[in-house]
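User: Modeling request: complex.
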Amino acid sequence: MNDFVLIGKNLFRRKLRAALMLVSILIAFLIFGVLAGFERAFSAGEDVAAADRLVVVNKINFTQPLPIAYFNRVRSIEGVRQATHFNWFGGYYQDPKNFLIVMAVEPETYMQVYDDQVDIPADARAAFVRERTGALVGETMLKKWGWKVGDRVPIMSNIFTQKSGSRTWDFTIVGTFTGRKPNVDTNFMVFQYQYFNETQNLGKDLIGWMALNTTSPSANERVAKAVDQMFANSFYETSTDTEKAFNKAFAAQLGNIALIVALVVGAAFATILMIVGNTMVMAVRERTREIGVLKTLGFSGGRILRLVLGESVLLALLGGLPGIALAALFAAAMETSVGNFIPGFAVTPGIALTAVALMLGFGLATGLIPAVNAMRLKIATALGRG
Amino acid sequence: MRPFLLQVAAVTVINVKSIPQRFWLSLSTVVAIALVVVVLLSFLAMANGFQRTLASSGAEDVAIVLRGGSQAEINSTVSRAQVRLIEDGPGIARGSNGKPLVSAELYLIVDGLKRSSQTKANLPLRGIGQEGAAVRKGIRVVEGRMFSPGANEIVVGKALLREFQGFQIGQTVSFATSRWTVVGIFEAEGSVFESEIWADLPVVQSLFNRNNIFQTVRARLQSAADLETLKRFVDDDPRLKLDVKSEAAYFADQAAQTSDLIQKLGWPLAIAMALGALAGALNTMYSSVAARAVEIATLRAIGFGGFPAFVGTLVESLILAAFGGLIGAAATYLIFDGFSASTLGASFTQVVFSFALSPALIAQGVILALAVGLAGGLFPAIRAARMPIVAGLSST
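Assistant: Request completed. Predicted assembly structure:
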């Protein structure tokens, strides 16, 4: 009988108790996995941001417009490799509840600037530049609404109206695209700025914001300053930041999600730490006599320590691994239903590894006190007790 | 019957008195349940606080007029001609000067620096008409004064001042090239307006290059029933393709989404944690029954029934759970009640709100705790009641 068998036997000597501890550990790691996946989805914008990309917005706020003339002026700045511009459309499909991310873009430059994120097939690229009413729809969005390439879809805006008074724009889906990285969200669509600018009646020749690639990340600061200086003291002043900083600030507007997640996960872990820790102490105390016998048989204090720690670590792994697996399943199942709201909700290998590290730490923490007690136990006391 | 009740009482007392013998295990159950209740109640208090802020913002007798289909103020546009028509509409209350209590407004988003994260966040800058403050109820300038017409002056809500930097009285705030002076701080009965910056409408229009553009019209009605009158008037006029809602309905719609979402996160989390705590409670109670096996068997041997043993164990579990629930509720109250936070509301701007714990929410927390106690005590109690006397006595 090797030590591992002994550990297993000890752990499951009271099946019900072991099962209850496993359940509470499983739940704690399920909560950890789901919340960590959730938080990661929230900060995804920060992760996918390109190091050499800057975002230029109106200094008052990013919802305020900029004149289209800025686009060419920004492109001429030294250190700017590529620039493009966007307009937020406020789109929805059929019912205002079916909110869609729809943006008007300058086709060619958009595809160049975001080439690191979205993978657009060559024929779709050509069609998007050619077709005035064409739209590129991300794979996620296409699937979600059951659209096909070639479909003509009526999209409504809660901000703009057409000059005819209608609030509906008809777009032809000329192609679809996928993300180049797994955490790039493709639940959005883009269409031609020209079509937008000519048909809508709320201010002409205005753009929402610009995105540009610098020649290298080291040029970021210089370029950002140059852009903001170029438009300083004009009616439309700009504020230029890295895409990463911009996305981070945007996510922070919702609240301190990371803190909430940390508090809840902390509470869940504190709960099981106490329950399992106490139970381990009790379980080992019940075995005092046996430990005395093992020591009489020649088991060293160190080996006893390892046996007890092994038991608590095994317990943590047996409860924690299924917990994190369940979290992964849950995230996969939820992806379609919450994808619109929190894209990229998934339990990643990084989260799983953190969880395993936590399990080991947790196992050691709950086993430490009883293990040390057992190690120090004097044979005479042990056999005399009970 | 009486001896039976005495038996139940006696066993229950023995059970409760034996709790200190399993002090650490019992304490861990109490704390585990308390943590579950804290998590549940903090989410519910967050949802409730948000809801309360928006709910108190809307009056039944104030009508808000938006462009048809725009849903939120930020998306709406209303022309000057339309504003004029509304002003002459039926059912609108008049101020002491005889003018209709109507305020055409412009709602813009500007950047502010959030104190907690030191990041930029969206703040609403509202250009209000002369009657803007009078249309709403409970607006009170608590420090400084109201902006003067035609001046680059702003007044800020009390809640906004709390969460965002740089809006103290006398400070100059710049929105692009325009400079504004903060001249007053106002209260609005804890409503969402306290998260806003207000300025004189014509000044905002000209400094933001929005001449003759309005976004919404607010009108104080003679009574809540006049909403229908005004609605019919707007629907009948082909020049007015506008939506008329009561302000209360408008804000209730806006509140629903966010507070629903918070609750939908809070309950499943709390229930998952409660299952974890349940495992702890079961463990504690089974240990309790095991530790008292001899005692229970002895009582049975001298003629006590199984039922008192059942009740005793169940009551012990419920007492631990009730303690946990109350400690959790008290802790949530001390830590989170009144805690100020802000998030992005439906108008795409920050809404500052305070966590608000209410007796109804506390009751939900305590019920969850007792449910854990009940489930955690039930099976051990059945075991206690059914324990064969011989097995119990020989279990040393």
